[in-house]
Amino acid sequence: MARETLFLVALACLCINLAAADWNILSPKWRFDAKQDTWKNYCESWRINVELNNIRDFEVVPQECVDHIKKYMTSSQYTADSERAIEEVTLYLTRCCTLKGDGKDAWIFDVDDTLISTIPYFKKHGFGGEKVNSSSLEAWMEQSKAPALDHTLKLFHEIKDRGIKIFLVSSRKETLRSPTVDNLINVGYHGWSSLILRGLDDEYMHVEQFKTQARKKLVDQGYRIWGIVGDQWSSIKGLPEAKRTFKLPNSIYYLS
Ligand SMILES: *[C@@H]1O[C@H](CO)[C@@H](O)[C@H](O)[C@H]1NC(C)=O
């Protein structure tokens, strides 16, 4: 009798433990916070739809999602996602291109949030939750303090070492040329063929139009554009197109 009771008690304990363990797995925080979960889902789906180019032309990150975007853009997941994209470029390079070695093989990079990061600026300025103040952003760019995105830095040199000419096409203004060059050199970039920035005439057109025009000029000069790496859809869309394009994550701002 006593033995059976003990067994039942033991069994009951085990069941309670199992139930507790289950509860634990289902809800690590021991408390289901429906509201928080809903926002997390909403904000992550907002983020992924920005990357998919379904959500366009946003001026600010939705207020409820600023924290979520900040967490992502400063997380190891952002780094892993970027590294993964760059690995795909490396893979593409091993089999893509029958380089002619005639000096006409070309590759295009964006500058901001592709070669160098604006995250230190946005950390101090609302992280996408405030409309971008271009004069304050440009004042920051003039300081030439943007850090390199290490995975792209490595790729930049790999591409250059293959004898492919590198063109940097950026929506930064022509007036920022000198601080931009300083910044790039300071963090390890050198040996690009041309840095194409927006002159006064180009400031009135959309970024996409400016960047397609820049590609058109290169193609007209006989360049074969094997690929583009950029963080904005406006850097990779439009004609003439590159043979392949690679999009890096960025859900802080949208340039059209
Ligand atoms: C934008 O930034 C500049 C320079 O930091 C500042 O003087 C100006 O008030 C800001 N404008 C807005 C609309 O916040």
Please provide a written account of the structure:
With about 260 residues, the chain is α/β, with parallel strands linked by helices. The chain contains nine helices and five strands. Strands 3-2-1-4-5 form a five-stranded parallel sheet, sandwiched between helices. Helix 8 links the parallel strand 2 and strand 3. Bound molecules: 2-acetamido-2-deoxy-beta-D-glucopyranose.
Beta fraction: 5-15%
- CATH architecture type: 3-Layer(aba) Sandwich
Mean pLDDT: 90
Q: Roughly what percent helix? A: 40-55%
Largest sheet, spatial ordering of strands: 3-2-1-4-5
- Low-pLDDT regions: 5-30
Please give the domain count.
Answer: 1
Q: How many angstroms separate the termini?
A: 79 Å
Q: Give me the Rg, rounded.
A: 24 Å
Strand tally is: 5
Main sheet specs: 5 strands, parallel
Shape descriptor = globular
Bound molecules: 2-acetamido-2-deoxy-beta-D-glucopyranose
SS field, number of helical segments: 9
| N to C succession of SSEs | HHHHEHHHEHEHEE
CATH first level? Alpha Beta
Corresponding CATH superfamily: HAD superfamily/HAD-like
CATH fold group: Rossmann fold
Helix/sheet category: alpha/beta
